[in-house]
Amino acid sequence: xxxxxxxxxxxxxxxxxxxxxxxxxxxxxxxxxxxxxxxxxxxxxxxxxxxxxxxxxxxxxxxxxxxxxxxxxxxxxxxxxxxxxxxxxxxxxxxxxxxxxxxxxxxxxxxxxxxxxxxxxxxxxxxxxxxxxxxx
Length: 136
Description:
The chain is built from three helices and seven strands. It is of the alpha+beta class. The N and C termini lie far apart (61 Å).
């Protein structure tokens, strides 16, 4: 085999291997739940200034998130529980399985690490915080 032919065979072999790898990856992604794209990723990035403003408002309120198993509560600066807690999120491993609940309890179907937006409203005060939590 001439050196020229060896190079051609090597390049064709590498290209064929790449095509085979891409086909395997496409098939396996379809089998394991489809696309795993973070919901509203662009919108969240485009409105990052709003997130910074909300964090400043959260600090001024002095409220914090408390997690006890599957129960998420918001506690004000004096230690009282704030009502009206809404959770919206998704499991990190299955971003397409979004959930939204208004009682502050993580749904039983959600397992593993979750990215959750906790929202609490009391009168004109609004608290919004992104949290990562592990649901048993």
